[in-house]
Amino acid sequence: MDRFAELVIASVLLAGLYATMAYGLGLIYGVLRIVNLNHGGMIMAGAYAGWYLHSEYGIDPYLSLLPVAAVSFLLGIAMYRGLVHRLPRGAAGGVQSLLLLFGVWLVMRNVAYLLFTGNDQTLRTSYSTRAAVLAGALVSVNRVAVFAVALATLIILHILLTRTYLGKAIRAVAQNPDSCTLVGIRVERIYALTFGLGTALAAIAGLLGATLFPFNPSFGAGELLKSFVVVVLGGLGSVAGTAIAALILAAVEVFAILFIPAYLTAAVGFVLLVLVLVLRPGGLFGQRVLG
Amino acid sequence: MLEVRAIDAAYGDVQVLAGLSLEVREKEIVTLLGSNGAGKTTTLRCVTGLLAPRKGEVLFRGQPLSKVAASDRAGLGIALVPEARELWPQLTVRENLELGAYDKRARGRAAQNLDRVQVMFPRLLERRSQVAGSLSGGEQQMCAIGRALMSEPSLLLLDEPSLGLAPIVVEQMFEAIRALHASGMTILLVEQNLAAALEIATRGYVIETGQVKLSGTAAELRSDPKIRAAYLGL
Question: Is the ipTM of this complex over 0.90?
Answer without folding.
Answer: yes
